[in-house]
Design goal:
12 helices, 296 residues
């Protein structure tokens, strides 16, 4: 009896380790996607980047659905949630790409990680969940950290980054809303089906503004655009593996791997630097996001 229990615990530990590794890969993939966005952003317009990101995501999710012989039919009572998730997710991606193109890599990444805070806020407003003292405290602390990171009017990042910084916060807001919509579809619409429709909607939505301002990519820029989609697909795949392989409270903190990696990539590739003030703000956001997602 005890041997069987020990075996089960060891097996659970292995699953948790796999989930943690999956989350580290996912977060690193999204950080690399941001690098590709920034590398291609000198000449390639924003909506062209968004278009190719989602076009490759359609191929990835479509292949997965066909491979698993999954239906893409969605019940009528879930179509509004799916539509809202797609619209909000598209707005979030546009904001993420804009912030990545106009802010230091690490700053854009950390502002996006305000997601858990917005999930807490919108879970109260939309899902009717109770706002705890912990939820209120982490929300205030996270926004204080965001102010330190953006530092409007001060030294370091400064006022010039106020608008892209606000857009970076909007990316987290839209992302938080989109995740709440996903939560409303939990157990009713498959995860890969959600990704497929979200990617399809985003590709169509980005096509017209892209066509109005299309720039013919060079060979290197084609590589960057393709890699944006590949890293996005990898991130989506592994983040799904992480959250289905272990409890969210066990793997969430490892979603900040990209935040740790981004300053290193920013220094090596873009010769960026961070002030002490920005670093303190990043720590506040990471700590707040982690505490917000931990069960009491």
């Amino acid at each position: 009896m005890n041997k069987a229990l020990d075996k089960e615990i060891k097996s659970l530990d292995k699953e948790t380790k796999r989930a943690v590794i999956a989350m580290i890969i996912a977060s690193s993939s999204f950080a690399m996607m941001a690098v590709m966005v920034k590398l291609s952003g000198g000449r390639i317009p924003l909506f062209q980047q968004v278009f190719f990101r989602n076009l490759i995501m359609i191929v990835f999710s479509g292949y997965s659905l066909i491979k698993n012989k999954a239906s893409i039919y969605v019940e009528k009572n879930q179509r509004l949630n799916l539509t809202l998730r797609s619209i909000l997710g598209f707005a979030g991606v546009v904001c993420v790409f804009y912030a990545s193109n106009n802010l230091p890599l690490a700053v854009a990444q950390i502002l996006q990680k305000l997601n858990p805070i917005f999930v807490v806020i919108f879970a109260v407003i939309i899902l009717g969940e109770r706002l705890t003292k912990k939820g209120l405290a982490t929300t205030i602390a996270a926004f204080a950290g965001a102010v330190l990171v953006i530092n409007p009017g001060g030294a370091g990042i400064g006022f010039s980054a106020l608008w892209p910084g606000l857009v970076g916060i909007l990316s987290a807001l839209f992302g938080g809303l989109a995740y709440v919509m996903v939560g409303r579809m939990k157990g009713k619409v498959g995860g890969m089906v959600i990704i497929f429709y979200f990617s399809l909607f985003s590709t169509i939505a980005a096509a017209f503004p892209m066509a109005m301002n299309y720039v013919a990519p060079t060979g290197k820029e084609w590589l960057y655009l393709i890699m944006i989609g590949i890293f996005a697909a990898g991130g989506q795949y592994f983040i799904t593996k992480a959250y289905t392989g272990a409890a969210a409270s066990m793997v969430t903190i490892f979603d900040y791997t990209g935040v740790v990696l981004s300053p290193v990539l920013g220094i090596i590739i873009f010769s960026e630097g961070l002030t002490l003030r920005t670093f303190i703000g990043m720590v506040m956001i990471i700590a707040s996001g982690y505490i917000a997602t931990k069960k009491p």
